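Morning, I've got a small favour to ask if you have a moment. I've dropped the whole record in just underneath, so have a look.
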Amino acid sequence: MERTPIPVLTVQTAPYEDQRPTGGGGLRRPTALFESQRNYLPNFVQSLLSSVDLRDRQGCTMVSSSILGVYNFCPIHVYLYVCVYVYLLIFKSLIGRLVIGQNGILSTPAVSCIIRKIKAAGGIILTASHSPGGPGGEFGVKFEVANGGPAPDIVSDKIYQISKTLEEYTICPDLRVDLSRLGRQEFDLENKFKPFRVEIVDSVDIYLNLLRSIFDFNTIRNLLTGPNQIKIRIDAMNGVMGPYVRRILCDELGAPANSAINCIPLEDFGGQPPDPNLTYATALLEAMRGGEYGFGAAFDADGDRYMILGQNGFFVNASDSLAIIAANLSCIPYFCQMGVRGFGRSMPTSTALDK
């Protein structure tokens, strides 16, 4: 039986003057603003997609995820409708693909990993980052480019210029994607010769395989389970990292299940900012101060920031943890095989790496 093509609508809109991306191609605003300003989210996503260079658009793949904290306020379906624009108006009749983590969830490092592995044109992440989420919190959209890194200033400026002149966007109100079902889903859309393709992938698998190629999992597993095992405590802060912590540290590397806390992703992150620092990661800090655990860590909501604590709650800043890695490169198989071209650090920094 022949399926009826899904209708495609062109929506007239008015541009906004305040959609300049900051912080690596991201736009973060109060959730209430997205709710109250007509077409605010579709406008920005449309501007973002239109910024992709014409030579990179043909037949390309885009990666997408939703970092909770925004999920009930803005179902990822709304974003999917807008993404159809790429395949209808930019790609014409060429086949395109949208890759999404199961249940809409992917950490920022996982999005970066998938972009590089499948040679995607980029990735879009719906996230409140380390800010409070939910209706009373914040909502944001981040863009990663083809190298898996955040959008550079030149791309952010292009998005902003487009956003100031935008007059319309295309949307498919009746498109429904089953985000829970792994595998490919295809949709016949109005005025399109080839199906619109959405592929749902396991949220952890590809990233876990990357980690296996970088680190010595057998040695780490022995450290966590052997006769001289170290006890660890990892706080996912009710963000996207919960599934990664449980799957990688507990299931794969053998850490006891109670080593991981706050691993259920929540819309509002449990009412606390998912910011891994001494102010907000108090549950982890108190546990580490007791001296029972030898290593502790906390992650922010989308998994690209962390805090490390040593025994008795000793705070290890990011510059020192980088210096420790640099001083022990022989323990990391990836660097033994590939070598090292240099070290990168961000502010605030220290002289530890220099020493």
